[in-house]
Write a structure and sequence with these properties.
By secondary structure, this protein is mainly beta. It contains two helices and nine strands, in the order ββββαβββαββ.
């Protein structure tokens, strides 16, 4: 959780003419962790031919902004941890059709900007709250994890004569 990169989370409420909230537009920058690598399903939709990618984005130290949205909508995120080094929120996201292909290309360690609409799906919360996820309208790959190169000699121990 001790990263140099700065994660980001913001949301806007889209309202109709009467001032009622229609939807929330969410922008977040975070990292794809091992348990959040997108997986692709190709059997979605009414004709069982639609594609969807499901993944999770990890955001560090953005809990205040996220909590504001969660309190306003009475919802929760996939995972939340708070400790002495800071907080970590894991937010699920879903991409459809051609966006699913782009999202499926993401891998562990990628820094990603995800933009889309907030979606609240019925979860298994004991208090009846819904899980906050994002339906992706746009993604941008900020950076990829660098390959770690290991020397062939790093495991050798010098011999004594």
């Amino acid at each position: 959780m001790n990263r140099k990169q700065k994660d980001y989370f913001s949301f806007e409420s889209i309202r109709d003419g009467n001032g009622e909230v229609i939807c929330y537009h969410v922008t977040m920058i975070g990292t794809i962790e091992a348990d959040g690598v997108p997986r692709l399903r190709t059997d979605m939709g009414p004709n069982k031919d639609g594609r969807r990618a499901f993944g999770r984005l990890t955001l560090v130290n953005c809990d205040r902004k996220i909590k504001t949205l969660l309190d306003e909508t009475d919802s929760y995120v996939a995972s939340f941890y708070s400790g002495p080094e800071g907080s970590e929120s894991v937010i699920g996201f879903t991409a459809r059709d051609w966006r699913a292909d782009a999202v499926y290309e993401l891998s562990e360690g990628d820094r990603v900007l995800v933009e889309g609409r907030a979606y609240f799906r019925q979860g298994n919360d004991e208090r009846g709250r819904k899980e906050f996820t994002v339906t992706v309208t746009g993604t941008f790959l900020i950076g990829r994890k660098r390959k770690e190169y290991h020397s062939l000699n790093e495991g050798l121990v010098p011999q004594k004569y």
